[in-house]
């Protein structure tokens, strides 16, 4: 007879590790296109207006935001595994559409599907890991989850840039995405187990019923901790969306080649991913608030360094500082949601938070595109730096400490 389920990393190590691997594959689906798509826009499709070039990031952000909400709602209602599998079914056509795209509209359509893949799959792996570990190791669990995803973004961006330098912008770099999607579908279909039953271990007494409208209101504006997390998450992903569209063109305009651009684009998520191995654990010991406030302030400084620099050492320093700032913020924000949301409505709370957070991609694309078209690429980065500084001040004023063991 199988042993009864228990909360914690150690008793659930096998399933937790499998979910970490699957989330790495989710991140890799983004990484396959970070270095290449802005260059495809200019060199293959001959696009010149930045707003239209960055439309694929905006489409991705809207699609991912909407599917985040659906992931939370459906995983609470029907279970986590079916939602995770559906997310990967949406992911499978993405690299194929990019490889065969005859026009930029196909690229935008592919990124709508990529947003569905990311929203359903990443949100669900977050919820499943929170289910498995319980409250004591929540920050560590989120750090491991996000580290896997963003390390995969980084390594795949670097690999895709190297492949593109050797074999061209299409189709070779996107074969990575085909392999990731097929492997993920096999792992989810045959090896992942449902985790919704672990909710009863954390909260054996029935929790008061919460309406979807009430949860949306809390996470959007009403609850100081939940709404502050949404604002900070949106600002963080605005910076990520900006980096996705603006950075490759900024560096290419300075005369860098594909290998150098790939390295700089990869450095940001590399530091972000590695840093989360520590920052999630740190948030379990010093609290969530110091990491969120400090991380947003550091991102503002990093963007200022990137906008001011004109040579490789400055860009390296800026991208690494930006990655460290994101590493401080990301797992701490997810832990805030896990701290405050009751297990019975956790999936929906995570989903609504990730709606607002991932609309940051769209905001970054709009801010970057409009500002770059009117004032230039450097001005777009300066604008993001100023916005990040304002958000740091806002969360410093409004975000309370949510760690259950800290005042």
Automatic annotation (TrEMBL):
The main location class comes to membrane
Q: How does it sit in the membrane?
A: Multi-pass membrane protein
Q: Which PROSITE patterns match?
A: MFS, SUGAR_TRANSPORT_1
By its UniProt entry, which Gene3D superfamilies does this protein fall under? Answer: MFS general substrate transporter like domains (1.20.1250.20)
- Matches recorded under Pfam families: MFS_1
Q: What is the lineage of its organism?
A: Bacteria, Bacillati, Actinomycetota, Actinomycetes, Mycobacteriales
Which ranges carry the Major facilitator superfamily (MFS) profile domain? 12-403
Quote the protein name from its UniProt record: MFS transporter
Tell me the InterPro entries matching this sequence. MFS, MFS_dom, MFS_trans_sf, MFS_Transporters, Sugar_transporter_CS
What keywords are assigned to this protein?
Answer: Cell membrane, Membrane, Transmembrane, Transmembrane helix, Transport
User: From which organism does this entry originate?
Assistant: Corynebacterium nasicanis
Q: Which residues cross the membrane?
A: 12-30, 50-71, 83-100, 106-126, 147-165, 171-192, 244-271, 291-308, 315-337
Q: Does the keyword RNA-binding apply?
A: no
**Where, subcellularly, is it found?**
Cell membrane
Alphabetical list of CDD domains matching this protein: MFS_MdtG_SLC18_like (cd17325)
């Amino acid at each position: 007879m199988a042993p009864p389920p228990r909360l914690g990393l150690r008793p659930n190590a096998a399933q937790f590790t499998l979910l970490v691997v699957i989330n790495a594959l989710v991140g890799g689906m983004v990484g396959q296109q970070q270095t290449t798509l802005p260059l495809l826009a200019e060199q293959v499709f001959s696009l010149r207006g930045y707003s239209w070039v960055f439309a694929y990031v905006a489409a991705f952000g809207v699609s991912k935001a909407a599917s985040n909400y659906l992931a939370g709602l459906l995983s609470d209602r029907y279970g986590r595994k079916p939602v995770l599998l559906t997310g990967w079914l949406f992911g499978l056509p993405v690299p194929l559409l990019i490889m065969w795209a005859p026009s930029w509209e196909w690229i935008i359509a592919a990124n709508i599907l990529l947003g569905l893949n990311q929203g359903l799959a990443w949100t669900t792996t977050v919820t499943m890991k929170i289910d498995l570990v319980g409250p004591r190791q929540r920050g560590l669990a989120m750090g491991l989850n996000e580290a896997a995803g963003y390390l995969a973004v980084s390594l795949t961006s670097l690999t895709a840039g190297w492949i593109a330098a050797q074999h061209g912008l299409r189709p070779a770099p996107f074969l990575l995405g085909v392999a990731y999607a097929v492997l993920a579908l096999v792992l989810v279909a045959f090896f992942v187990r449902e985790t919704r039953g672990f909710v009863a271990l954390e909260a054996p007494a029935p929790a008061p019923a919460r309406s979807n409208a009430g949860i949306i209101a809390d996470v959007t504006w009403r609850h100081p901790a939940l709404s502050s997390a949404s604002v900070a998450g949106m600002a963080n992903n605005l910076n990520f969306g900006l980096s996705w569209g603006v950075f490759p063109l900024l560096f290419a305009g300075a005369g860098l080649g594909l290998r150098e651009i790939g390295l700089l684009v990869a450095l940001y998520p590399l530091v972000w991913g590695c840093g989360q191995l520590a920052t999630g654990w740190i948030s379990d010991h010093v609290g969530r608030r110091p990491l969120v406030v400090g991380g947003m302030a550091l991102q503002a400084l990093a963007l200022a360094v990137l906008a001011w620099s004109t040579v490789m050492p400055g860009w390296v320093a800026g991208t690494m500082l930006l990655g460290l700032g994101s590493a401080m913020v990301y797992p701490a924000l997810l832990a805030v949601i896990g701290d405050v949301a009751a297990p019975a409505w956790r999936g929906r709370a995570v989903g609504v938070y990730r709606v607002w957070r991932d609309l940051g991609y769209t905001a970054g694309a709009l801010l970057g595109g409009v500002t770059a078209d009117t004032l230039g690429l450097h001005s777009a980065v300066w604008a993001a730096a100023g916005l990040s500084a304002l958000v740091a001040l806002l969360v410093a004023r409004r975000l309370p400490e949510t760690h259950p063991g800290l005042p």
